[in-house]
Structure formats: structure tokens, C-alpha cells
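Notes from hallway chat w/ T.B., transcribed later so I don't forget. T.B. wanted the structure written out for a chain they're using in a teaching module, and asked if we could keep both sequence and C-alpha cells in one place. Agreed to drop them here.
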Amino acid sequence: MRDFAIARDGAIADVIDHTPRAASFFIDPTGEVISEVLQDEEGIAYAEIDLSRCVEPKQFHDVVGYYNRFDIFDLSIDRTRLTPARFFDDAQAAAASGPHGEPQTELSRSLNAR
């Protein structure tokens, strides 16, 4: 591949030769590298993983969300009682009611039209 690229544009050789190569390796839950780094050659990376070392970091994970980003996340709960089924005998009555069976106002009609 390198030879093909250089044959098309000789100036690209310097870029190819001085570009950092990708690396493959394994890290443990603390961020420590636990395997050999595979870089600049093809190969298969192997490592032994001790699953018991994963338990403690999971205990520190905030499952209830105390570190949520309130500036970008929002939780809304609609406490309106929902009607499981609505039956209408005519189309006009169906069009006059909202998604929860309540009478529609002009605002709710415009919001539901979106």
C-alpha cells in the first residue's frame, strides 16, 4: 500500500513514514497496560483478564446518576392518567379529543399536528 501511494505522489512518503501508528493493547480497570503493545506490525494481541478486578470499579459507578449533566439531560414525567382505550362513534368526536381522551384546546391541536 505504501509503494502504491508513493508511486502516485512522491511527497507523501514523508507523511506516511512520520505518522504515528495505531496500537493495540489491553488495559485493566485502573488504566494500567496489562499486555504487550502491538504496533507497527500485524498480529493478534492476547491477554489474561482477571474478572475479579472488575468488581471494585463497578461498585464506584454511580448507578443513581448523581453526576448527571443537568445542563444537557432532562427527565419529564407525565402524571396524566391515561385511558387504555377510547371508542368514538363518529369522526368529529375523535378529532375533538386529545391523545389521552381530554378535550383538545387550540394549543394542543397545534402541538398534535406536528
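Follow-up for T.B.: The chain has a mean pLDDT of 77. Might be a good example for the class.
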